[in-house]
Amino acid sequence: MYQFFIQPDNITEDDILITDAQDVNHIKNVLRMKKGEKLALCCEETGREYLCAVAEFEENGIRAAIEDINGQSRELPVKITLFQGLPKGDKMELIIQKAVELGAAEIVPVATKRAVVKLDAKKAAKKVQRWNEIAKSAAKQSKRTMIPEVKPVLSWREAVEYGKSLDMLLLPYEDAEGIGHSREVLASVKGRQSLGIYIGPEGGFQKEEVEQAAEAGAQTITLGHRILRTETAGMAVLSMLMFMLEED
Asked: How many structural domains does the chain have?
């Protein structure tokens, strides 16, 4: 079933009006949907998914009749922020796509000292716009009830400061204590409201950056005896957290 996001003002007791121009065009001219065909409409503000059937093609949009309503079962109980060190090439697009699929609530690109990629303000703004489009597409594909936001690129100090507002911070690091300690740390995530994960770029974190994160309350963890690529590390942590936090 195809999924689209809608605004709360377009929802009535019995139906929903789809007005987003891109979505209207996609439904009418790409999918060529007919009256009676089913689609899912999600509203971020209500946190609900509305199972609908196409009712009418109107001049100002598409009207869909509400047949059933689902709650927030697709979202994790902990808001997870992925702080991702800027990687080379197009790796960030893959990272964002998979982070959204695995339940991250927001992604923050971070310019660390060892990051090879250097973006000026103009390039960064264009990248962030593109990355948010990828997040929206991934949210639709994975049937999320919200669209995770990709924030503007932050410096390392800004990212550490941002992290102070979260309940818990994790930082995978090759010099962290053993796997037993990491299991204990991950187990303590349950019951938190928000969590941040710091992932370094290809060159990893500088020792100074790790110390700054620790001062802000970040706990270092190990992901095992193997060194993971930057595009793998975040997925590994998110996968473990998703398995632990997912509710029936």
From this structure: 2
